[in-house]
Amino acid sequence: MPLTAGQQLVWLAQRLAPASPLYNAAECVEIHGQLDVSSFEHAVRVAVAEADALNVCVVEEQGRTTQVHRSATDWKFPVIDLSGDSDPLTAARGWMATDLAEPVDMTTEPLFGHALFVLGPGRHLWYHRCHHIALDGYGFFLVAQRVAQVYTAPDSAGRWFGALRSVVEADHAYQRSEQRELDSKFWQARYADHPPALSFTDRIAAPSGRILRRSALLPEDVATGLSQAARRGGVSWPKLVFAVVARQVHRRTGANEIVLGSCLMGRLGSLAARTPAMIANIVPVRVLVRAGDDLLTVARSVGQEMRAIKPHTRYRGEHVRRDLRLLGGERRLYGPVVNVLPFDYDLSFGSSRGFAKNLSTGPHGIEDIVINFHVRSNQPPELDLDANPRCYSEAGLEELLGELVTSLVHAARRP
Q1: 3-state helix/strand/coil string of the chain
Q2: Which CATH class is domain 5-164?
Q3: Annotation: CATH topology of 179-344+357-413
Q4: I want to staple 298 with a disulfide (CB 3.0 to 4.6 A). Which of 102, 233, 243, 303 is the partner?
Q5: Nearest to 315, CA basis, from 3, 65, 6
Q6: What is the pLDDT of residues 228-274, one digit of tens each?
Q7: Which residues partner with 122 through β-bridges?
Q8: What residue ranges do the domains of the chain occupy?
Q9: How far apart are CA 54 and CA 270, in angstroms?
Q10: Does 5-164 match 179-344+357-413 in CATH topology?
C-alpha cells in the first residue's frame, strides 16, 4: 500500500533526522488487581496481530515509498519483575525512558514495543511504545481497548479493528478530489493576512532533538466543572480549554488575535473510527481576545471559528503551511498547539482496573509548545506541557504550568 499523506510527512521528517527518537510515542497503563501474565501477553499479541498498521514495514524503491505487510510475530514481550526493588516505579520509568530514546528503523524493525512490569502484589505496569507513522493518540487508545477486551473475554469473536487499506484508499481518493482543491483555496484565503504567530515566549528556534515536559494533575472536580460551565455558555468544554490558552497568550502579549494549533483526531463519523493508524492533523485556529472579554465570550469565538473550518480539516496542516510558505526553519503559522484528549480510558482487565498515562505524544507541533489536556474516566484530569527546550527553560515552563493549572481551575469554578 502507499502511505497516506500524513504518513508520508512523518516518513520524510524521520528521514531528515534518522537518529532522532522523537517520532516514538508511548503510553503506560498501571493495572491494579490480579493479573494473569500469560493471558495478558496473549491479549497483547492478539491486538497487535489484528492491527494492520502494526504489521507493516516501510520500503523505498526508486523514489517510491510504500508500506508492505509483514506479520509481526517474532517480537519479544519482556516481563520484568521489579517487586524486590526499593522503588519499582522509578526503576520502570528509567527502563521505559531508555527504550523510548532508541530510534526505530522503519524498514526492518517492528514499529512497536511492549513490556510488562511487576511492581508488587496486585500491581503491574504495561508499557506500549510505537512509531508515530503507525499510530496517533487515538490509535493507542484503540489498541488498549482491544487488549482489555481480549483479556477479559479471550474468545472475543471477529475482527474488531477496521482495515488500514480502507483508510489509505479513502485518503488517496481525497488527495485526488475536487474537495481537496477547495480546501486548499479555503485555507489560503483565510490566512492570506495571517497575524504573527505569538506564544508564551518571544524565542523562536528550530525544533530540538529532545522535548522538555512538565505535568500536573488537576483537582478531580475540574472536568465536571468545565462541562457544566460550557453547557451554561452554550459551547463544548474543549472550547473552554482553548479559551484559557488564548487568554494566557493575550495576557503575555497584549495581542487581540491569537492563532493556536488544534490537534484533531480526523476520525469522527468515518470508517477510521475503529482503525489504529496515524490520522491526526494539526490545523490553525484564529481566536479573537479583547481586553475585558470573559472566558465564555472567548470560548464562543473559538467555537465560531471551529465551525467555519470544520469542513476543511482533512487538508493537512503541514500543507497549509507549505502553501503559505511558512514550513521549515523558524517560520510559524501558530503559537501553542492545544491537544485535548477526551478518550474514555476506562480499562478493565477482568476484575482489575487500568489507569493510563501518556509518556510521549511524538513530535507533533513541538516547534514551540504543545498543551496536552487529558480527561479519563476515574482519573483526575492531567495537563502535560511538551516544549521546545530551545524556547523554554525548565523554570519558565514550571511557571507556565502553574498559571495554566490555576486558569483551568478558575474556568471550571468561576468561568
Answers
A1: CECCHHHHHHHHHHHHCCCCCCCEEEEEEEEECCCCHHHHHHHHHHHHHHCHHHCEEEEEECCEEEEEECCCCCCCCCEEECCCCCCHHHHHHHHHHHHHCCCCCCCCCCCEEEEEEEEECCEEEEEEEEECCCCCHHHHHHHHHHHHHHHHCCCCCCCCCCCHHHHHHHHHHHHCCHHHHHHHHHHHHHCCCCCCCCCCCCCCCCCCCCCEEEEEECCCHHHHHHHHHHHHHCCCHHHHHHHHHHHHHHHHHCCCEEEEEEEECCCCCCHHHHCCCCCCEEEEEEEECCCCCCHHHHHHHHHHHHHHHHHHCCCCHHHHHHHCCCCCCCCCCCCCEEEEECCCCCEEECCEEEEEEEEECCCCCCCCEEEEEECCCCCCCEEEEEECCCCCCHHHHHHHHHHHHHHHHHHHHCC
A2: alpha beta
A3: Chloramphenicol Acetyltransferase (3.30.559)
A4: 243
A5: 6
A6: 999 988 999 999 999 999 999 999 999 999 999 999 988 765 678 89
A7: none
A8: 5-164, 179-344+357-413
A9: 21
A10: yes
Whole-angstrom distance, CA of residue 79 vs CA of residue 73: 17
What predicted TM-score, i.e. pTM, was given to this entire model? Answer: 0.92
In tens, the pLDDT along 326-345 reads 877 678 999 999 999 887 77
C-alpha cell at 268: 469522527
